[in-house]
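User: tokens in, sequence out, please.
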């Protein structure tokens, strides 16, 4: 059914077998007789040796019974890849990919399985049932999915997948980066998979357009950079989309924050405190932002602006916006700033910006300052103070001709709280600061820490020991706001309960 030359198959079924030298249409393999009745040609007698990509298509008259072909040695041995490569080559010759693409996933898999089984039989490859299953699975993944990445994509415990060329794949699990045994056949296969990923959003990656951001259908965020910019083959980075987003309760369980600290965050989320979440790459900023949004009231109209939609808000009244990169002709780009500006005309009550990285910082601050209390965003910075200066430089570099003092005054008038998250060297994530923006002293923005994480050392397993504590500030600047929302008792309880008495206060 899916042979490239279907009519050829039908007519040749009744013809005598061609001489060994004649190359049959590759599609013949689909209708090829059962292995008992045919023998592979001499050239295909050792299937595990290279150079017989079309062996499956050659249904030659018997010459001599072939010796049993190479046994697949162990998982992911060299011969596994070699054998797989050759069966794959024969399969690609045999099937019509356009026809295949019209089938649904399950049917297509069945079709491929049938053909691969035929090829294995014809080529007389000796392998156990489990090896055959493994190879079938791999080949289906190659043809229909993302090849060797499939088993990694299926796992929900992986945060990031990092492919540095065909031979090296790293993953991040539980905050730790580890090397996997997974590899691609070659850089061409990796390139094809990158291509397949980005083609889903109408883009391509090649020498002329070697960088691309994309998304997998499950929402995972993808970055691809290919040669000549990446020197050792395509580099592919995937931030896996977590179906089950972490909750504040889970963050408490992971010691990212203490229970009292979590109560403080709930108050911040609920009381419409303008909040910036700051942290390094992969430190958990988006996750924490998502957690905070759970405490927003159901009747608030929320508009989210993201480069790649990652947030999963639970409220009923949400409009989700996503920026758009330019198309192949370099047109049609919609930047984050366009989204944030537009959402000001959409009667938002809260604006949530997935990541502030450019001139949209100015619009977000303006929104926070003009009645959209409780707006939130994340930004890359290593400390709350650095977050403030990053914000300032984003505005300056955005071309706004404002004196530094004016920008700082704007920051002070807009941002209430900065929450700092960090990924520590033992792989755990911690909220290290909840810091209030207090005011200005001269030219300098003043801040005060409400809640901090103290590093106390590490245990014999290398796990970092520490504790969260409040700094003893009983009445934060947003106290009145908490009172207005009836949350002042919770706020006071959260701060009091995490005070460490009898030690000099730090922070
Ligand atoms: N507190 C946490 N404990 C354990 N895992 C976490 C925690 N916070 C986030 N993660 C996991 O870490 C990964 C990265 O999280 P997230 O996307 O929130 O980071 P990020 O700081 O927004 O990254 P980026 O800078 O790339 O946008 C995700 O897989 C997430 O599930
Ligand atoms: Mg993020």
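Assistant: Sequence out:
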């Amino acid at each position: 059914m899916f042979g490239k030359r279907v009519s050829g198959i039908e007519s040749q079924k009744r013809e005598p077998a061609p001489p060994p030298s004649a190359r049959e249409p590759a599609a013949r393999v689909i209708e090829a007789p059962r292995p008992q009745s045919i023998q592979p040609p001499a050239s295909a007698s050792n299937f595990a040796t290279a150079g017989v990509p079309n062996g499956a298509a050659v249904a030659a008259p018997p010459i001599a019974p072939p010796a049993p072909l190479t046994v697949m040695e162990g998982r992911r041995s060299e011969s596994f890849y070699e054998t797989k490569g050759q069966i794959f080559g024969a399969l690609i010759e045999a099937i019509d990919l356009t026809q295949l693409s019209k089938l649904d996933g399950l049917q297509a898999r069945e079709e491929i399985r049938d053909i691969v089984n035929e090829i294995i039989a014809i080529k007389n490859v000796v392998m156990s049932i489990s090896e055959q299953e493994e190879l079938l699975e791999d080949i289906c993944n190659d043809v229909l999915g993302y090849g060797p990445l499939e088993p990694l994509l299926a796992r929900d415990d992986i945060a990031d997948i990092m492919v540095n060329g065909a031979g090296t794949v790293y993953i991040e699990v539980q905050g730790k980066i580890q090397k996997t045994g997974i590899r691609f056949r070659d850089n061409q296969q990796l390139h094809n998979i990158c291509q397949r990923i980005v083609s889903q959003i109408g883009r391509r990656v090649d020498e002329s357009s070697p960088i691309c951001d994309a998304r997998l259908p499950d929402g995972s965020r993808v970055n691809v950079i290919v040669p000549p910019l990446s020197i050792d083959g395509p580099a592919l980075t995937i931030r896996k989309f977590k179906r089950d987003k972490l909750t504040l309760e889970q963050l408490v369980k992971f010691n990212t924050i203490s229970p009292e600290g979590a109560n403080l965050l709930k108050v911040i989320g609920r009381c419409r405190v303008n909040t910036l979440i700051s942290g390094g790459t992969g430190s958990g900023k988006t996750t924490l932002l998502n957690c905070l949004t759970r405490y927003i009231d159901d009747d608030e109209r929320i508009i989210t602006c993201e480069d790649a939609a990652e947030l999963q808000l639970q409220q009923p009244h949400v409009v989700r916006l996503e920026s758009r990169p330019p198309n192949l002709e370099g047109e049609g780009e919609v930047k984050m700033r366009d989204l944030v500006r537009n959402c000001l005309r959409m009667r938002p009550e809260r604006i949530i910006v997935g990541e502030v990285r450019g001139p949209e910082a100015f619009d977000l601050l303006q929104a926070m300052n003009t009645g959209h209390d409780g707006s939130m965003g994340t930004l890359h910075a290593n400390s709350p103070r650095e977050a403030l200066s990053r914000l300032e430089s984003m505005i300056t570099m955005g071309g706004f001709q404002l004196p530094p003092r004016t920008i700082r005054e704007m920051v002070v008038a807009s941002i209430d709280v900065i929450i700092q998250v960090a990924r520590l060297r033992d792989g755990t994530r911690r909220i290290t600061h909840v810091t209030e923006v207090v005011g200005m002293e001269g030219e300098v923005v003043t801040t005060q820490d409400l809640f901090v994480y103290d590093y106390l050392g590490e245990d014999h397993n290398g796990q970092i020991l520490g504790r969260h504590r409040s700094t003893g500030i009983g009445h934060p600047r947003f106290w009145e706001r908490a009172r207005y929302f009836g949350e002042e008792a919770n706020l006071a309880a959260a701060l009091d309960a995490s005070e460490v008495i009898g030690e000099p206060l730090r922070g």
